[in-house]
Design goal:
Blueprint (H helix, E strand, L loop, with lengths): L15 H4 L9 E6 L8 H10 L26 E8 L3 E2 L8 E2 L6 E8 L8 H5 L5 E3 L5 E3 L10 H4 L6 E2 L6 E2 L5 H4 L6 H5 L5 E5 H17 L6 E3 L12 E5 L19 H26 L2
Parallel strand pairs: 1-12
Antiparallel strand pairs: 1-10, 2-5, 3-4, 6-7, 8-9, 11-12
Length: about 290
């Protein structure tokens, strides 16, 4: 296997590792998070912190249900959201009775979801990094090398999901690595291994997409018509995510953008337009001097 050349995220297609220069790379690996079976135990958060030596993130009471971390950050690479949602709940009818409605106290549901870096196919963070600190691995994931991160912060606004964050004490950025060190020795990421309900599933991305499609079909057959997949489509604005989700409501309910787009999508055309404008300006100035001397 060759060492990847400094690749960019434009038009990576279904094989971002190959587009980055890897030869005979292993299958692209990723996460499928089935939020319908997440119980909010936060075992994934704890396992991630323990394995990756991620510092504690405040341990404060936020007032946001049982969520004490609120969002992904430089010190929270896995975040379990607790969403308390008002919901009309119908009670199934018994023989000879009409369908009833649950008591007012039961008119809500909890939506729980373990969020993580999406490891985009078209990764804007990778495109804007000036030092090569962010790189594509042979597994198709995106990893930060903290030892050469200069703290410029360009990647922070470039991420369409708001995943990457800087630590205030030194300015460097940190995020999920999909446990790159474990992948290299054939082990699954710590969060997936710790998940007690198989809400977080790890494996070759193609297999996960097939599994997710079957799971979605099963939920629809059971009447859970609001279930949907998020980030699985290679034709979306980021070329599909390496970490995708089964949701039980709109993406916005989970704090996810409904239609993410790689923020560097127009970067090449923009620079081409700038170059054309600069050339036209130089030509105009040169022409004015030439005619001015006559």
């Amino acid at each position: 296997m060759s060492v990847a050349r400094p690749g960019r995220g434009f038009e990576n297609g279904p094989d971002p590792a190959g587009a980055s220069g890897y030869v005979d790379a292993p299958p692209r690996m990723g996460f499928f998070t089935d939020t319908s079976v997440c119980i909010g135990c936060k075992a994934c958060e704890v396992a991630c912190k323990e394995w990756n030596l991620v510092p504690e993130d405040g341990l404060v009471f936020t007032g946001m249900s049982y969520d004490n971390t609120q969002a992904l950050s430089a010190n929270t690479w896995r975040h379990v959201a607790f969403i308390e949602q008002p919901k009309r709940i119908e009670v199934p009818a018994t023989a000879g009775e009409d369908v009833g409605v649950a008591p007012a106290a039961a008119q809500f549901r909890w939506l729980m979801s373990s969020d993580v870096c999406k490891h985009c196919t078209e990764a804007a963070c990778l495109d804007v990094c000036p030092t090569g600190s962010l790189f594509r691995t042979e597994f198709g994931t995106v990893v930060v090398q903290q030892d050469i991160c200069n703290g410029c912060g360009y990647c922070v606004p470039a991420c369409p999901y708001g995943v990457i964050d800087q630590r205030p004490d030194d300015g460097r950025v940190f995020k999920c690595t999909l446990c790159y060190d474990r992948l290299k020795v054939g082990s699954e990421p710590a969060c997936a291994q710790a998940c007690p309900t198989a809400s977080i599933q790890f494996g070759p991305l193609d297999e996960l997409r097939e599994r997710a499609g079957r799971r979605l079909g099963g939920l629809h057959d059971e009447g859970v018509v609001e279930a949907r997949l998020y980030g699985h489509d290679p034709e979306d604005g980021v070329g599909g995510d390496g970490a995708f989700f089964l949701l039980l409501d709109e993406p916005e309910v989970y704090g996810l953008p409904p239609d993410p787009v790689v923020t560097t999508r127009d970067l090449v055309s923009t620079w081409k337009a700038v170059a054309v404008a600069a050339a036209a300006l130089v030509a105009g100035v040169s022409a004015s001097f030439a005619f001015g001397r006559r």
